[in-house]
Amino acid sequence: MKPNDLVIYNSLSRVKQRFTPLTEGRVGMYVCGPTVYGDGHLGHARPAITFDVVARYLRYLGYKVRYVRNITDVGHLEHDADEGEDKIAKKARLEQLEPMEVVQHYLTRYHRAMDALNVLPPDIEPHASGHIIEQIEYVKAILDAGYAYESNGSVYFDVPKFNATHGYGRLSGRNIDELLSATRELDGQSEKRNPADFALWKKASPEHIMHWPSPWSEGFPGWHLECSTMSEKYLGRVFDIHGGGMDLKFPHHECEIAQSVAHNGADAVRYWMHNNMITINGQKMGKSLGNFITLDEFFAGSHPLLKQAYTPMTIRFFILQAHYRGTVDFSNEALQAAEKALARLNDGYRRLQTLKPASENDALDIAAIEAGLQAAMDDDFNTPQVIAGLFDICSTVNKANDGAIRLSTADIEGLRRIVDTYMTGILGIVPEGAAATQSNMEPFERAVDFVLEMRSESKARKDWATSDLIRDRLASIGFDVKDTKDGWEWSVKK
Question: For residue 199, which of 176, 218, 185, 219 has the smallest C-alpha distance?
């Protein structure tokens, strides 16, 4: 294990807390994954990237991490409560498909987008529909504990009874009186003893496509139930980290807490983490609001709101520029700024790979640079500060490249190791320069270098006309060429 002072902002306690795992050297982490009834959008990318970085950093520290991210393929109703049609079943009906065809189609596309964003797959990716038996048993246990009741074939969680003994609303800061005053009459509301109660099991209507037998009815599990059940199955009754978007605090995560306490007699989660929203004009980006831009549209530049296409790494960098608990507002200007900043970072990375050591060198405190980056990550995964530190390294590299400072072989190797660790390994940003070293790029790279060698020979002969012609022709077809004290540098124009 690497020495660390990792602190995590716990959404439940509302303070930063020193991270101490339940089991030394091991971390169990559960993150709410997508409901797969449409293409992934920028709002889906943020939690995926956020908790990918969390898992990467925990592994860097030496923890053995079990990362579980679920797939919701049943039970998520249109209005995130006990109202409306199942989102996947509705999509299946509209497109005249089997629900699992819808799930498979959009899950494949989601995975493809995650691969493009360099989001590593979770260790376990359970589906709600594959854990119906476990969910039924979970409901039975809550009934036996006296915190649920059956009504007309459905089973509802008794929120007022739970609130009287354990307190409901601790995560979101809501109270029962507020909930009651804000709750409107819903379809099927008369089945409930109280408007704040939520479904653990819903009796299926005749037109409902997805349903299973249970002791209470042919029906399907409530949306909130799946996460309590699957997190316990794969991580145990108590585990370290539960993550998800801030929009899930209520009702989803609040209901999870109530279910777990009713089932086990104690809280299941030690650290709750929530990433903030992606917004467009100050509104949450989401399918329900119809204001989302899919990831494929970003990559292709095919949405009317987009002025251009943006690479997956630009999207990843754009998201990591902000702290995960801060909002990120979409605009073309912000994405273009991220694109330019990432290009500068890639240029610095590429220069670092070819930087030559000086015979004499200025002292560079490699240990202090590395300690600064770790301190940033230890402070609740402060990725903006890490990025700032990487730009400081780029500045050092540029100065060395221009001869303003002198670096030893050990200094250069140390900087390369740090950049590879934090930029590529922890932030998951694949440097453009790294791709350019792959075997399929070598002929392209050699061809450009050959042309620039011809230009260098022309300059040596003082054949300025040929030298300028080569430079100008390269510029016209999309290359930036910069003369340096050691020869030249080139890059593809952004």
Answer: 219
Residue among 360, 418, 296 at smallest CA distance from 45: 296
Residue 360 binned pLDDT confidence (cut-offs 50, 70, 90): confident
Backbone angles phi, psi at 163, to 5 degrees: -60, -35
- Are the beta carbons of 429 and 317 closer than 8 angstroms? yes
Token digits of residue 165 = 């003994």
Cα–Cα separations (whole angstroms), residue 484 to 2, 454, 488: 40, 16, 5
Give the angle subtended at the CA of 397 by the CAs of 392 and 402, to the nearest 5°. 125
CATH class of 7-275: alpha beta
Domain boundaries, the chain: 7-275, 295-436, 439-492
pLDDT by residue (tens digit) across 215-258? 999 999 998 999 999 999 999 999 999 999 999 999 999 999 99
Query: How many Å apart are CA 415 and CA 405, to the nearest integer?
Result: 14
Three-class DSSP category at 334: helix
Amino acid 454 reads M
For 32-65, the pLDDT digits (tens) are 999 888 898 898 999 999 999 999 999 999 999 9
Given 3.40.50.1970, 1.20.120.640, 3.40.50.1370, 3.40.50.1110, which CATH number is that of 295-436? 1.20.120.640
The C-alpha atoms of residue 422 and residue 63 are separated, in whole angstroms, by 17
Residue 154's beta-bridge partner residues? 151
* Cis upstream peptide for 121 (omega within 30°): no
Other beta carbons less than 10 A from residue 111's beta carbon = 15
* pTM, rounded to two decimals: 0.86
Q: Would you say how long the chain is, in residues?
A: 494
Residues 6+ apart with CB under 8 A from 213: none
What is d(CA 66, CA 348) in angstroms, rounded to the nearest whole number?
34
Strands 269-275 and 239-245: parallel
Per-residue pLDDT tens digits for 278-327: 988 777 776 666 678 999 999 999 999 899 999 999 999 999 999 999 99
